[in-house]
């Protein structure tokens, strides 16, 4: 017989009754029922109920062992009595009566429960991550992640993609986030950067003649932590030669749709998935209709522009008119069927808006053709009729208003759209759709944007994208009007992917970077490798990168990316288990030719304490 097991803890069935078996695993739970000791034995494959019969000399020994101790048992399989069958357990028809037991590794008292969720905090879970990972939920999530990545690879191989590994130590690149820098010992005063994405390398592979590239790529960005962002993350990185935007979409849509179809019943209930082809929404349209370029299409509410209503001479609402005169806009959100809601429904939304920094959330409620509410008296009947037509309002509907400069109005309207929808759902009205994954493409992004702080033009998205209209557009059009061949893939309010058709002509790249303030010298220094490769013949090419972690987070129905990683840092980017980041020793700093210039600690207290500090 094998030293540790003849079967795994999820294997045994009625067909095994009468057999002598050996199982190894962790003590999940113990229960003493009047002299009979029940031991639930667990491994990653499942759980088996084991029994120490009354009078066995093993009872006193096993009873002293703590949960999470690792043991090996030898015993014989018996069928459970009909009334004790556990239909929720794969091995629920049988139990194993223990004849022998060996302690492999005795556990101390555990700092939190593994067999059940005892509400322990995230930092405590991450400090003892190896225990947290033993929990059933975490085991399922990590297996899901593994299976998703395996399925992605199979689907990419099936379309003749080749898998590559690109460098981890590389040069800094303007990807829009802060780099993690690595000092070079051999080149004092110089630094490598961890890649924010393998952008230049995958483009260089296309210029090297490889037609289809993909990679499960590790990426690093030194940004503040949040639930849907980590310092280190993985993406399905893709690049293709001789393709248009349509080719990229047609190639990746079946992969992503197939992944979500395959794993959409992860929690036991099948979810619907947007069929291919996914809807395409231009950037300007999505910002108007949804107030965000990451729209959650499960939310049925849409935003409309009603500036024209409040510009009318017969409308005397100066709070809006004064903003419109400064270039502002008025956005409106229809909330169907809220006429039966109490006044508190509207008051809570108004208070919420004030908490978001807005003056409030004005509204008009229609009963028949007559509008009521705090703004209605400023809008005469003819203007109300125009409002009803623009917003598609009927009796019993309300319309909420946001007035500000266009960018700020879009942002606030997007927040309000989601808040109104969720409040409707919480009050028995149709709200956000459930049981579905709703995908769309956001296309036609602006090539450039105006930095509000510096008033300078900068790239709005990926700097390596091809401008629509090519060099002629860059030479003849207002830069802020130039569109790029850039696109994002969005699902349920999350940006899952970003991509573009790339700029493959050096003269266009020089012009594009020049508009953003990068001189030729800077371009040669930062991107000389890319420019030189273009000068030796570069194919038209494009690609995309999907965030694997966000995909798994959606499929697992988890609110936090840290729930779908095996080992991960907390929200402050600290590894509490491995005590990282840690201080470098003086010898390490000397080897790297570095000296520390740490910020002075903040001093609290009165003047005397500050002087002493």
Structure description:
This protein is an alpha+beta fold and 613 residues long. 30% of the residues lie in helices and 23% in strands. The protein contains 18 helices and 24 strands. Strands 6-9-10-24-23-22-19-12 form an eight-stranded mixed β-sheet, with helices on both faces. Helix 4 (136-158) crosses helix 16 and helix 14 (506-515) runs antiparallel to helix 15 (520-535). The longest helix has 23 residues, at 136-158. The protein is globular. The model has no long low-confidence stretch (mean pLDDT 94).
List the helices and strands and how they pair.
Layout: E1 20-33, E2 36-43, E3 46-52, H1 58-63, E4 70-79, E5 94-105, H2 122-127, H3 129-132, H4 136-158, E6 162-163, E7 181-183, E8 191-193, H5 199-207, E9 212-220, E10 232-241, H6 245-263, E11 272-273, E12 280-282, H7 283-290, E13 303-305, H8 307-311, H9 318-325, E14 329-335, H10 343-355, E15 363-367, E16 370-372, H11 381-391, E17 398-404, H12 406-426, E18 436-437, E19 439-443, E20 448-450, E21 457-459, H13 470-476, E22 486-491, E23 494-501, H14 506-515, H15 520-535, E24 541-547, H16 548-555, H17 586-591, H18 607-612
Parallel strand pairs: 3-5, 6-9, 11-18, 12-19
Antiparallel strand pairs: 1-2, 1-4, 2-3, 4-5, 7-8, 9-10, 10-24, 13-14, 14-17, 15-16, 15-17, 19-22, 20-21, 22-23, 23-24
Helix pairs in contact: 4-6, 4-16, 5-15, 13-14, 14-15
């Amino acid at each position: 017989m094998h030293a540790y097991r003849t079967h795994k803890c999820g294997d045994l069935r009625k067909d095994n009754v009468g057999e002598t078996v050996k199982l190894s695993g962790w003590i999940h739970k113990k229960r003493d029922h009047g002299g009979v000791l029940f031991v639930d034995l667990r491994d990653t494959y499942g759980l088996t109920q084991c029994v120490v019969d009354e009078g066995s000399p093993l009872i006193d020994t096993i009873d002293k062992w703590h949960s999470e101790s690792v043991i090996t048992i030898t015993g014989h399989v018996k069928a459970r009595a009909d009334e004790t069958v556990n239909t929720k357990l794969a091995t629920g028809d049988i139990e194993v009566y223990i004849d022998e037991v060996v302690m492999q590794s005795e556990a101390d008292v555990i700092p939190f429960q593994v067999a059940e969720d005892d509400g322990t905090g995230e930092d405590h879970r991450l400090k003892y991550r190896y225990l947290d990972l033993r929990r059933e939920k975490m085991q399922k999530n990590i297996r899901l992640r593994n299976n998703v990545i395996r399925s992605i690879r199979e689907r990419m191989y099936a379309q003749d993609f080749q898998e590559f590994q690109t460098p981890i130590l590389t040069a800094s690149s303007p990807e829009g986030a802060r780099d993690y820098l690595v000092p070079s010992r051999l080149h004092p005063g110089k630094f490598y950067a961890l890649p924010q994405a393998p952008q230049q390398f995958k483009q260089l592979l296309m210029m090297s003649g490889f037609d289809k590239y993909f990679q499960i790529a590790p990426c690093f960005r030194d940004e503040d932590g949040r639930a849907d962002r980590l310092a280190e993350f993985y993406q399905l990185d893709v690049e293709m030669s001789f393709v248009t935007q349509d080719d990229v979409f047609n190639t990746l849509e079946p992969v992503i749709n197939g992944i979500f179809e395959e794993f959409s019943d992860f929690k036991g209930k099948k979810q619907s998935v947007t069929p291919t082809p996914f809807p395409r929404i231009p950037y300007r349209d999505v910002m108007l209709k949804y107030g965000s370029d990451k729209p959650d299409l499960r939310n049925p509410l849409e935003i409309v522009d009603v500036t024209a209503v409040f510009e009318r001479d017969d409308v005397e609402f100066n709070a809006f008119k004064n903003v419109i005169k400064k270039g502002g806009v008025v956005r409106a959100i229809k909330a169907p069927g809220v006429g039966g809601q109490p006044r508190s429904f509207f008051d809570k939304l108004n208070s919420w808006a004030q908490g978001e920094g807005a003056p409030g959330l004005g509204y008009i409620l229609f009963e028949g053709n007559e509008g009521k509410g705090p703004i209605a008296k400023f809008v005469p009947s003819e203007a109300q009729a125009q409002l009803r037509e623009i917003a598609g309002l009927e009796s019993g509907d309300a319309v909420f208003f946001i007035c500000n400069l266009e960018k700020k109005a879009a942002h606030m309207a997007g927040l309000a759209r989601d808040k109104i929808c969720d409040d409707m759902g919480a009050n028995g009205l149709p709200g956000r759709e459930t049981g579905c994954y709703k995908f769309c493409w956001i296309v036609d992004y602006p090539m450039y944007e105006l930095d509000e702080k510096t008033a300078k033009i900068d790239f709005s998205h990926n700097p390596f994208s091809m401008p629509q209209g090519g060099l002629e557009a860059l030479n003849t059009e207002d830069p802020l009007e130039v569109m790029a061949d850039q696109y994002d893939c969005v699902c349920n309010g999350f940006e899952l992917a970003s991509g573009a058709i790339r700029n493959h002509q050096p003269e266009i790249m020089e012009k594009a970077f020049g508009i953003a303030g990068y001189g030729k010298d800077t371009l040669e220094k930062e991107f000389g490798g890319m420019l030189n490769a273009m000068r030796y013949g570069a194919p038209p090419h494009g690609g995309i990168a999907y965030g694997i972690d966000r995909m798994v987070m959606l499929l697992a129905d988890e609110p936090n990316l840290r729930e779908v990683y095996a080992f991960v840092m907390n929200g402050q980017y600290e590894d509490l288990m491995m005590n990282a980041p840690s201080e470098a020793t003086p010898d390490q700093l000397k080897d790297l030719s570095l000296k520390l210039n740490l910020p002075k600690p903040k001093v609290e207290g009165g003047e005397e304490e500050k002087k002493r500090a």
